[in-house]
Design brief:
With 193 residues, this protein is α/β, with parallel strands linked by helices. It has a single domain (2-189), classed as DHBP synthase (Alpha-Beta Complex), CATH 3.90.870.10. The chain has 7 helices and 9 strands, in the order H-E-E-H-E-H-H-E-H-E-H-E-H-E-E-E. It has helices at residues 2-9, 31-41, 56-62, 67-74, 89-95, 110-119, 141-148; strands at 14-18, 21-27, 49-52, 81-86, 101-105, 123-127, 154-155, 167-170, 177-180. It has a 9-stranded mixed beta sheet with strand order 7-1-2-6-3-5-4-8-9. Strand 1 and strand 2 form a beta hairpin. The longest helix is centred in the first third of the chain and has 11 residues, at 31-41. The protein is globular, with a radius of gyration of 15 Å. The termini are far apart.
């Protein structure tokens, strides 16, 4: 993980396995890395980006976490959920987004958890998608490398992962609102399946 962390420190793009397919991204501490990620994923840009965290203490630096949101997320993360929260002003500026929300995740994949622990900063994640097949996510690191080639600096190829999105849930306004069903059970949210 030291090599991957060093790549991130040097404004690089790393491909990593998640519980829902392969993703790619950069460090939140790297404006140059973020610009590079935007060039690779254009026109997707901030529409499908999420911030990845190692622990809850980091989330409140990037998003406004109400007591309601914390209680809701606490028993579901780490896990296959992306929670939409109000973004802090510096986060919106960092990500160059106009909308006032940001997606936050604490992944469960051991390789990605190890990278987050080694790097020490949250990561900006974009799902690694086929350009010719809309919405389809890569299931192997080799596939991402074949598609994106020299645009990525390092591929952490762990194993084949079934492509299945995380469950996306908005907690904005202290309400639980399902945005997209995924591999995280919605019954855990107190919603009907």
């Amino acid at each position: 993980m030291e090599q991957a962390s060093n790549v991130l420190d040097k404004d690089g793009i790393v491909v990593w396995p998640t519980e829902s397919g392969y993703g790619m991204g950069c460090s939140t501490a790297s404006p140059k890395g973020l610009n590079k990620l935007y060039r690779i994923t254009n026109p997707v840009k901030a529409k499908v980006l999420a911030l990845l965290f190692n622990d809850f203490s980091q989330i409140s630096q990037y998003a406004e976490v109400s007591n309601f949101a914390f209680r809701t997320m606490k028993h579901l993360m780490p896990g296959p959920y992306t929670f939409i929260l109000p973004a802090r002003q510096r986060t919106a500026k960092m990500l160059s987004i106009k909308r006032p929300e940001v997606g936050v995740r604490m992944p469960t994949h051991p390789v990605l958890r190890a990278l987050l622990a080694a790097h020490g900063h949250p990561l900006v994640n974009a799902a690694a998608r086929f350009s010719e097949r809309e919405g389809e996510v890569f299931t192997t690191g080799e596939g991402v490398e074949d598609q994106y080639g020299r645009n990525v600096d390092l591929v952490l190829d762990a194993e084949e992962i079934p492509a299945s999105g995380t469950t996306i849930v908005s907690l904005v306004g202290d309400e639980v609102r399902l945005v997209r069903p995924g591999i995280g059970p919605i019954s855990q949210l107190g919603l009907e399946e």
